[in-house]
Structure formats: C-alpha cells, structure tokens
Amino acid sequence: MSKDQWRKLIKQRSLFFDKNRQDRANIIIQEKIWEMLSGINSFAIYMNMEDEVATDLLIDKAFITNKLISSPKCIDNENMVMAKIDSKFKFTRGQLNIKEPTGMIIDKNEIEVIIVPMVAFDKCGVRIGHNKGYYDRYLSDYNGLMIGIAYQYQEVDSILKEDHDINMDMIITEQNTYMIA
C-alpha cells in the first residue's frame, strides 16, 4: 500500500476508536513515556492535534520537575526548529494552525529525547506522518533518542520506507512498546 492508502485506512480505523478508549489510551501512553523520561533533563514533544496521542500530562510533569521541554515551531513551509516551552499558556498559532511555543530556539544537540507523532507505523520503526516531511528533515541529523507514539490501531503490516524517511528508535502505544534494533 502507498502512504496515502495507509493514511486513509487509519482514518477509517479511527472512527471505531471512541472518546473513552482514546482518553484511557492517552493516559497509559503518557505514563509509559514519563517512566522513560524520569532520568533525563531535556526532551521535545509535539503539541497534539485532535487525532494524535495527547501530550498535556507530559508537559505538566515537565514543568513540575523543571525539565527543559521544547516543541516544534515551523520556520517556513519545509523546516521546523524546537523552541522552549516557557509556560503552558504562552503559545501562538503557527502557519499550520498548530500551537507553537514562544520561547527561545533550542539546539537539537541539547535535546536528549524527541517524541514524535505518527499517523501510522510498522514494527520496524518506519512511520508515516501527515505528509509534510517536517520531522524527517529535522531528524535527519539528530543523534538522540527518537520515540514515536501512537494508538495501537495505527499499527500496519509494513510501510515501504523511502530514502528520506527516518526510523524511530522506539514506538509506544497503549498496548505495546517496540524497541527497534
């Protein structure tokens, strides 16, 4: 299947994932991630859209524990940077109408873990995003840990990896944690 075909299939599957199941899955996934983040000082995380795994609890916990936390900020139609989240309440709407932090730009080498959203994924760590390529470009020279998070229904058999695609090091769902070799 093509990436667009996988996106359509996942969209259909999402119709059967009710709000209660989504809420429970969001909590489970965020708790799993937080256990992994307890020993690090900095991480980057996305500001979730409605169909993505929620990230609000992780952001709250980062503030409580004084971790350096950043989130994507689009600088043009192809590239993003990570900007510090100074406050849970200080955001602007970016060019893709996604909340973006207003803090200073963080060098990617200072970020220990980047948590990445996914539309679909396979067990080999290949992911499909929203077809813009921002994460693949940003992560192309990143050396830290890349964790993709998704709901279990977003897993697919096999995604044809393209040259520009960046594999995740780990994928976390409400049911499984996949360590990619």
Going across the biggest sheet, name each strand in turn: 6-3-2-1-7-10-11-12
Q: Supply the helix-strand structural class.
A: alpha/beta
Number of helices: 4
Bin the strand percentage.
15-25%
CATH architecture: 3-Layer(aba) Sandwich
Order of helices and strands: HHEHEEEEEEEEHEEE
- Might you state the CATH topology name? Rossmann fold
Number of strands: 12
Shape: globular
Helix content: 25-40%
Q: Quick one: CATH superfamily?
A: NagB/RpiA/CoA transferase-like
Average pLDDT, rounded to a whole number, is 94
CATH class: Alpha Beta
Task: Give me some keywords for this one.
181 residues; alpha/beta; Rossmann fold; eight-stranded mixed sheet; two-stranded antiparallel ribbon; 4 helices
Task: Give the topology, please.
Elements: H1 3-14, H2 19-37, E1 42-44, H3 56-64, E2 68-74, E3 80-84, E4 91-93, E5 99-101, E6 105-106, E7 113-117, E8 120-121, E9 127-128, H4 134-139, E10 145-149, E11 170-172, E12 177-179
Parallel strand pairs: 1-2, 1-7, 7-10, 10-11
Antiparallel strand pairs: 2-3, 3-6, 4-5, 8-9, 11-12
Could you provide a short overview of the structure?
The protein is α/β, with parallel strands linked by helices and 181 residues long. Helices cover 25% and strands 24% of the residues.
Structure description:
This protein is of the alpha/beta class and 181 residues long. The protein has a single domain, classed as Rossmann fold (3-Layer(aba) Sandwich), CATH 3.40.50.10420. It is built from four helices and twelve strands; from the N terminus they run ααβαββββββββαβββ. It has an eight-stranded mixed sheet with strand order 6-3-2-1-7-10-11-12. Strands 4-5 form a two-stranded antiparallel sheet. Strands 8-9 form a two-stranded antiparallel sheet. A hairpin with a 4-residue loop joins β11 (170-172) and β12 (177-179). The longest helix is centred in the first third of the chain and has 19 residues, at 19-37. It is globular, with a radius of gyration of 15 Å. The relative contact order is 0.18. The model has no long low-confidence stretch (mean pLDDT 94).
